[in-house]
Design brief:
By secondary structure, this protein is of the alpha+beta class. It has 2 domains: 26-171, 3-Layer(aba) Sandwich (Cytidine Deaminase, domain 2); 177-253, no CATH class. Helices cover 20% and strands 29% of the residues. The protein is built from 5 helices and 14 strands. It has helices at residues 8-11, 36-48, 89-101, 125-132, 177-190, and strands at 31-35, 54-62, 65-72, 76-78, 85-87, 109-115, 138-144, 150-156, 162-165, 168-171, 193-197, 200-204, 230-235, 251-253. The strands form 3 sheets. The chain has an 8-stranded mixed sheet. The termini are far apart. The protein binds zinc ion. Zinc ion binds at residues 83, 114, 116, 124, 127, 143.
Length: 261
């Protein structure tokens, strides 16, 4: 019998693993978010210190989404030569003890971050050894330098060990109402949407989008249209969108809540 030829990987007993995403996966791929304030604090600490510096952070987990909510420093000893920093273990124990005494949740300390100052960002053998010694369900590790470069990894230890290099997504807090109103006013002043209706060309103030801003998840609860849109006649019939000046004849208000045209 003629034997089917195997490729090299099959001969070696190696299966090419493939990450399944989108509709192929019943569970979404893990994502790591960080609050705007937390990433700004890390960046500030990294900028302020000429040498390697490290810290910890709290992480909230929601399914496969991990959100770094806050970061902080513990007493530590850094070094003028090389990239090495040592956390004071007594200070760390004291911090955890006081956290628990104040009804804090020490199990949420799942971020360890450090700086490589002016060096490139990578996880050194020492970093990887540290990560391997964690006793948690998961741990997020972040290394950043003064150029703003970073590498972030998520290590899962239960139900099995898995290490993933992940992008860090900044979570923008809900926008203050006054801030949104200010942007909305500037947009209304400067932006018009050209729309042909029954052979005439109208402009209107754009709808406030329900979608995400800049691809970053934001709470848009406060970002809603405050009223009906103004619709203005832009041009004479059959004038194309690319033509000439907008001729504003009269503003008109639409009734009802549906602003779609
Ligand atoms: Zn390192």
């Amino acid at each position: 019998m003629k034997k089917k030829k195997k490729n090299g990987n099959e001969d070696a007993g190696i299966v090419n693993l493939k990450v399944l995403g989108g509709s192929q996966a019943p569970f979404p791929l893990p994502r790591v978010f960080i609050s705007q304030e937390a990433i700004q604090r890390i960046k500030c600490f990294v900028d302020l210190c000429e040498y390697e510096i490290n810290g910890f952070g709290f992480v909230e987990r929601n399914g496969n989404d991990f959100v770094i909510t806050d970061v902080f420093l513990i007493k530590q000893y850094t070094c003028t030569s090389g990239v090495h920093v040592e956390t004071d273990s007594r200070a760390l124990n004291k911090f955890v003890r006081e956290l628990v005494q104040n009804n804090g949740d020490a199990s949420k300390m799942r971020l360890q971050w450090h700086s490589h100052a002016w060096s490139s960002v990578f996880f050194s053998d020492e970093d990887v050894e540290t990560i391997g010694n964690y006793m948690n369900d998961f741990m997020i590790s972040l290394v950043m330098n003064k150029y703003g470069e970073y590498r972030c990894r998520l290590d899962l230890f239960k139900p099995f060990n898995l290490s993933l290099e992940v992008p860090l997504l900044v979570y923008i807090n809900p926008l203050p109402d006054a801030f949104v109103r200010c942007c909305e006013e500037e947009m209304k002043q400067n932006v018009r949407v050209k729309t042909p209706i029954l052979g005439k060309l109208f402009t209107r103030v754009p709808k406030i989008s329900d979608d995400t801003l800049c691809g970053i998840p934001v709470d848009l609860a406060d970002v809603k249209a405050s009223g009906p849109e103004e619709i203005e006649l832009l041009s004479q019939p059959n004038q194309s969108c690319a033509d000439g000046t907008a001729v504003e004849i009269k503003p008109a208000r639409r009734e009802g809540g549906d602003n779609g045209l």
